[in-house]
Amino acid sequence: MARRILWALLALTPFVLVARYVLDFGETTLFILSALALIPLAWLIGEATEHAAQHTGAGVGGFLNASFGNAPELIIAMLAVAGNLPGVVRGSLTGSVVSNILLVLGAAMIAGGDGKVDTRSLRWQLCAVFGAVLLLLVTSVPAWGNGSPDRHSLFLLSIPVSVILLVAYVVITVQNLRIHRASERDEAGEHAWPLRKAIVWLAVATLATAFVSEILVHSLHHFGKSVGLDEFFIAVVIVAIVGNAAEHGGAVVIARRGNTTLATEIAITSSMQVAVFVMPAVCLLSWLVGRGLPLSFQVIEIVTMGAAAAFATLVIWDGRSRRWEGFLLVGVYGLAVVAYALS
Which of 2, 5, 179, 260 has the fewest Cβ atoms nearer than 10 Å? Predict the structure, then answer.
C-alpha cells in the first residue's frame, strides 16, 4: 500500500511545475508543495539505486546514487552563481558536505541499526574530504583578513586548486570502483529491475528533483526573510538539506531495509563528491554564468567540514553501523547548526 501511495504522490511534481509557471502560486504555498514533492522523488531515487546496486554492488550503487543526487546540487549552485549569490553557493556546498556526513549517515545508522559498512571504501573517501578541506585553506585563509572574499585574485588562486581537486576526484573514483569490482559480484536478485530500467528511473527522478529543488530554493529566500533568518544560515542549513533531500531520503529508506552498506556508501560518497568534484566544478564553470566564484570559505565552514569527516571516521572505523553512533552523529550535526546560527 505504501508503495502505491508513493507512486501516486509522484504526480505532485508536475503539479508543482504548473503551480509555479502557470498558476503563479504564492511563495509559501510553493515551498510546502515543493517539499512534499521531494518525498516521493527521494523514495524513487532510493528504489532505483537499490535495484541498480543488485547488478553493480554497493560501491557502484552508492556512486550512482551520489552522482545522480548531486546533479541538482550542481544545478542549484550554478543558478545561485548566476544570481550573484556567492555566499549562498559556498554556504550550500559546505552544508551539503556536513549534512551528508553527519545528518544522512547518522539517520541511516539510526534507521538501519546494527549492520556492516565497507571501511576500505569509506576511509578512502573520508581521507579525500580531509584532503579537500586542507587544500581549501589555500584559498580561504587569505580571505579571513581584510578584503572581500569574492575578489578576483582569490578566484584566480582557486583555479589551480580546483584542477587539483578534479584530478584527485578521478583518481579516487577509479580506485574506489576497483576496490569494489575486486570484491563484489554482479548478481541481481530475482525481483531486481533490469539495470537499464533502474538507470532510466534514476535519470528521470534526478531531472524532476532538479526542477522541484529550484522552485523550492527560489521560495526559500522569501521564506527565510519572512521568518528572520540570515542568508548564510538559509544556505548552509536549509538550502543544503533541501538540495540533497532526495539523497537523504534514499539513504534512510535503503538503510531501513537492512542494507547499511549501501546506505553508508551513499552518504559518504555524496559528501566526497561535493567536496572534491562539485566545489571545483562550480568554481571553474562560474565564469560562464556570472563572476568567477572563489573557493574562499569562512572559518566556521572549514572547521565544521573537517570535524564532520573526523567524527564519521571514528564511527565507521570498526566496520560496523550502530544505532547509538547514528544518534551521536545527528547530535554533532545539531551542534554544527547552532554554531552556524551564532556565527
Answer: 2
